[in-house]
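Before we proceed, please read the two lines closing this message. Let me know whether the structure tokens fit the sequence:

…
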Amino acid sequence: MIHYTHDPQGKRAVMTDGSAEFGGAKLVLFIGPRIVVLERDETPGIPWPGCLDLPGGGRDGFETATTCVLRECREEIGLKLTEDQLVWQMRYGKGVFFAAHLGAGAELQIRFGNEGRGWQLMHPLLFADHPKAIPHFARIVRQYLLESGTSG
């Protein structure tokens, strides 16, 4: 797995310890050539209401970033991924981002949870360019495509 840390001011260094303090974790989850995208609720007071989001969320207790992203994926879309399916990790501010690739057809196993308005599969560059995509998540998707050589 590739580990990076990224500071919003543009400084970047190799991540050395996954146990550093973080606030939450997100997953760029490919199913075939497309990624899983969630549409956030319009609830007043939540960050980025109505925007396009990636699976993931806030840290519970003292869980690791890996445990956090796997739990959130299970809760939000019903998929039980394993740590060995995570192929990339990048730190951005207080967030930790991961990527995983599942084969076409895995979307048939998705069971949408109770947060958000819905989900869809979307081409990663369409997400990255979408006006409703959370801007820093769009940049993370582009970064992953660039670093992994994944076709966008």
Summary: Confidence is low (pLDDT under 50) at residues 1-17. The beta strands are 2-6, 12-14, 24-31, 34-39, 52-53, 56-58, 86-92, 95-102, 118-122. The longest helix spans residues 135-148.
